[in-house]
Write a structure and sequence with these properties.
The protein is an all-alpha fold and 91 residues long. The chain contains 4 helices and no strands. It folds into 2 domains: 48 residues, Arc Repressor Mutant, CATH 1.10.1220; 34 residues, no CATH class. The longest helix has 15 residues.
């Protein structure tokens, strides 16, 4: 037998433990089940996908703010020097 050590966030551990308990498992058993499935399928037993950084609602807010900034009240610069001057004025 080998021991696997790893660091995980407390909230993640607590939430996972709750799920495992509802399934009648402890963490060690759940990890063994996962590893056996990896070996049996020779793959990760679920689809790995990149999750969006922002929610759809947040993306909508960001796009709306960008659109608003492009209007009359937005900051417009055409050169690096103009951009630097705007940034310097914000200090």
């Amino acid at each position: 037998m080998q021991t696997i050590l790893g660091k995980i966030h407390e909230d993640l551990e607590r939430d996972a433990e709750e799920v495992f308990q509802n399934l009648g498992l402890d963490s060690a058993t759940a990890i063994r089940v996962f590893l056996r499935k990896v070996v049996a399928t020779r793959s990760i037993p679920f689809t790995l996908e990149e999750e969006p950084f922002f929610s759809t609602e947040e993306e909508d807010e960001i796009l709306a703010a960008a659109e608003e900034a492009r209007g009359d009240g937005g900051i417009r610069t055409n050169t690096l020097e103009e951009t630097q001057a705007v940034l310097d004025s914000m200090k």
